[in-house]
């Protein structure tokens, strides 16, 4: 059944059906009416397919960018925390306040951003006492800005991907209904069985 077809298969089948109807126009008195139903449906399948494919591509690119920012952010976080440990000692309150009990290892992007912001605040407070603070503070600030932008872009891209996927499913459902209606009129025309080049389209 068409409902089980992959998106690309539905599009290809829709085109095959339109082509078959156009070839049989002289023999099918209802061909123009059926074509008038299928042509806009096919156009919607094409449009939604292109939008969905583009949205998926943009979403994957946004995820890749976010991942790069995460990797860079985690690396920077670990480096600066090590410097703080070397300066204060690993049991110092300044270090302990930054720790989440090693949960940083499996942090989500949003949690990593929160960790970096806490590190940013710690460096900001320690600028006078820490010789490396000014340089590292600037790095952490840049990392926070980049990661926050990457998270936002990934979220927006995910929303667009979901919307485009829904639009594509709706276009497929419209085609499924048009196909079913076409099958009914062909059955009536051929007297209970579908013949000719339509036969394999409606197996």
Structure write-up:
- The chain is 76% helix and 0% strand.
- The protein has 203 residues and is mainly α.
- It has one domain (2-202).
Oligomer class: single chain
Low-confidence stretches: none
Secondary structure: number of strands: 0
Q: Could you give a short account of the major beta sheet? A: none
Characteristic key phrases:
203 residues
Give a short overview.
This protein is mainly alpha-helical and 203 residues long. The protein has helices spanning 7-23, 31-88, 93-96, 109-125, 133-190.
List the helices and strands and how they pair.
Elements: H1 7-23, H2 31-88, H3 93-96, H4 109-125, H5 133-190
Helix pairs in contact: 1-2, 1-5, 2-4, 2-5, 4-5
């Amino acid at each position: 059944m068409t409902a089980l077809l992959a998106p690309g298969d539905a599009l290809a089948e829709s085109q095959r059906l339109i082509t078959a109807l156009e070839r049989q126009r002289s023999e099918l008195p209802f061909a123009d009416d059926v074509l008038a139903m299928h042509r806009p449906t096919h156009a919607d399948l094409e449009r939604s397919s292109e939008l969905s494919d583009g949205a998926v591509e943009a979403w994957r690119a946004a995820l890749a960018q976010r991942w790069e920012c995460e990797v860079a952010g985690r690396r920077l976080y670990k480096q600066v925390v090590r410097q703080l440990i070397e300066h204060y000692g690993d049991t110092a309150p300044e270090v302990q306040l930054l720790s989440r009990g090693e949960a940083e290892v499996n942090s989500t992007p949003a949690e990593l951003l929160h960790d970096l912001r806490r590190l940013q605040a710690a460096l900001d407070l320690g600028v006078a006492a820490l010789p490396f603070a000014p340089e590292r503070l600037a790095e952490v600030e840049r990392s926070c800005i980049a990661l926050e932008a990457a998270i936002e872009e990934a979220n927006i891209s995910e929303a667009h991907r979901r919307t485009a996927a829904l639009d594509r499913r709706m276009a497929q459902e419209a085609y499924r209904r048009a196909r079913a209606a076409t099958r009914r009129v062909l059955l009536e025309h051929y007297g209970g069985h579908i013949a000719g080049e339509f036969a394999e389209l409606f197996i």
